[in-house]
Amino acid sequence: MAHSIDVRGGEALADPSTPLLDNAIWAALAGPHARFAERLGRAARYPADVYGFAALADPADPAAWADLRTLVGPGTVVRVKPVEEVPAGWEVVGGGVGVQLVDTALRAEPAPEAVRLGPDDVPEILDLVARTKPGPFLKRTVELGAYLGIRHQGRLIAMAGERIRPPGWTEISAVCTDPEHRGRGLATRLVRAVAAGIRARGDVPFLHAAAGNTPAIRLYESIGFTLRRRSPILLVRSPGTPREVRAL
Question: I want to staple 189 with a disulfide (CB 3.0 to 4.6 A). Which of 28, 50, 111, 118 is the partner?
Answer without folding.
Answer: 111
